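Lab notebook, bench 4. The sequencing result for the construct came back, and we need a structural model before the next group meeting so we can plan mutations. Quick request posted to the team channel:

Model the 3D structure of this chain.
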Amino acid sequence: MIDAAQQDICFSKISDHEEKLRLAWSKLVYLKGFDRKDPLYETVLTDFLNECLGNACQDAAQSILSTFDGSGSPFGCKMLDILYKGNANSL
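Done. Here's the predicted structure in token form:
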């Protein structure tokens, strides 16, 4: 099991990427509320596209997914240990 300090670091790193994806998702949902003929549509579309510019959303999703088994995780996290062995902060 990873220790509590490492687990907290992992959760913190993951939350940064999670926030990126949540923000992009909220902008996409907001965009879906506009008709393509609406004068603000292009502005809202650009705002969404800029959120994921340079593969930022893809990188965030990949970073989160790689923490599940630790393969390629940029944080050295193996979050499946938490699911199988328990949360180190609650032991």
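The chain has a mean pLDDT of 83.
Will bring this to the meeting.
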